[in-house]
Specification:
The protein has 374 residues and is an alpha/beta fold. The chain is built from 14 helices and 14 strands. It has a six-stranded mixed beta sheet with strand order 11-12-10-9-13-14. Helix 3 links the parallel strand 2 and strand 3. It starts with 10 loop residues before the first helix and ends with a strand.
Length: 374
């Protein structure tokens, strides 16, 4: 937190100035939880969102910090219309924004909302989602137990049935898998709209990347939090109604951008620790992973494994794009003939349980003998 500016110059005045700064600092850190809400053209959802914030059962002190990222609708007016009701509940409200021709992006708006807030803990809230009454209270309690962690929760996805596999994954990954499954295409194992953390941890890790449209600022922050030794935890209760719609900012991030970030993080955190490994899937996804690996890690791939007899009968995969001569040829074997550790490039929850049965048959431990990548 930036200290207040010092305006006085004489010795006595300087002391008075510092005293005022300390008082201001105390005042600014007196709030327990700041709800951080970036807003961009969200007026159609804001009433429901703000009503839910009003009805939080948290008994500590709260503030709502809103930053409007150049909305062209009446979003800021809608938020202003709720100020009196929120303040009557004892919640301070900070609203700001800009009116530039273009929005600066979610990362920028979140950083602005955080910098103008004063809570010791930060509760991230998307303007199109709805928090349940217990959310702030339960996540605050969890954060007290895990001050250097990102805290999530279970969600209810609306419309019902949208992103069914993704929603099931959000709600069923185990505590251990919150750490081991960070390399999957699903992204952060606790999804951004459910994040809750201490301000001190945010300041150590952050700020969010302000690259704007097309930048996965949540994934970048999540990875950086893990690099700093941060934990991941989840309140095993549904505390958020998580809305799916075509205007969501996540749709602006390409799969290729996410893929490259995931491969780099996998190489940094896992493959750098292994002398050799097997890629589980000799098909399109497994071969794509191989091609994106550094030359050092490509040399560590001792085999592809699969259950498809057609792929296995070919005997090997030739990396045609390689500049090496002769071109690398990687054996393709049945998974029962392969050896750990594995990087699994088969989609979770898509084989009717067969993949999971095969893994269990080999008595492998996730996070030691294998990691899921897809």
């Amino acid at each position: 937190m930036n200290p207040a500016k010092r305006l006085r110059t004489t010795e006595n005045e300087r002391k008075e100035g510092w005293q005022e700064e300390e008082e201001e600092e105390e005042e600014r850190t007196a709030v327990d939880v700041s709800i951080i809400m970036p807003v961009y053209n969200a007026s159609c959802w804001l009433d429901e969102c703000l009503q839910a914030i009003l009805h939080q059962d948290f008994t500590g002190t709260m503030e709502l910090s809103v930053f409007d990222d150049a909305s062209t609708d009446d979003s800021r007016k809608v938020v202003q219309g709720w100020r009196e009701r929120l303040e009557a509940r004892g919640m301070s409200v900070v609203i700001s924004g800009h009116n530039s021709a273009q929005p600066q992006g979610v990362g920028y708006a979140k950083n602005k909302a955080i910098s103008q807030s004063c809570g010791q803990y930060l509760c991230f809230q998307d303007a199109d989602d709805v928090m349940l009454p217990e959310r702030v209270g339960l996540q605050y309690e969890e954060s007290l137990l895990h001050p250097n962690s990102l805290i999530g929760c279970k969600v209810q996805r609306v419309p019902e049935g949208s992103t069914e596999r993704y929603t099931r994954w959000i709600n069923t990954v185990t505590q251990d898998q919150l750490i081991t499954q960070v390399y999957t295409s699903h992204g952060p194992t606790v999804v951004m709209p459910t994040w809750f953390c201490s301000r001190s941890w945010f300041l150590k890790v952050g700020p969010f990347d302000e690259g704007g449209k097309g930048v996965p600022e949540d994934l970048l922050f999540f990875y950086q939090s893990m690099r700093q030794g941060g934990g991941v935890a989840r309140v095993d209760q549904c505390l958020l109604v998580y809305r799916y719609h075509e205007k969501a900012t996540t749709h602006s991030v390409t799969e290729e951008t996410i893929w490259k970030l995931r491969v780099d993080f996998l190489q940094e955190r896992v493959l750098s620790q292994w002398e050799s490994f097997t890629i589980w899937n000799a098909g399109k996804q497994g071969r794509k992973l191989y091609r994106y690996l550094s030359p050092t890690n490509q040399r560590k791939v001792k085999a592809f494994c699969d259950v498809d007899e057609n792929k296995i009968q070919k005997g090997f995969y030739t990396y045609e794009e390689s500049e090496q001569r002769p071109k690398p040829k990687i054996p393709v074997v049945h998974y029962k003939d392969a050896s750990a550790p594995f990087i699994i490039c088969v989609k979770l929850d898509m084989t009717g349980g067969i993949l999971e049965e095969n893994l269990n048959s080999l008595q492998l431990k996730e996070g030691i003998d294998y990691y899921h990548f897809n």
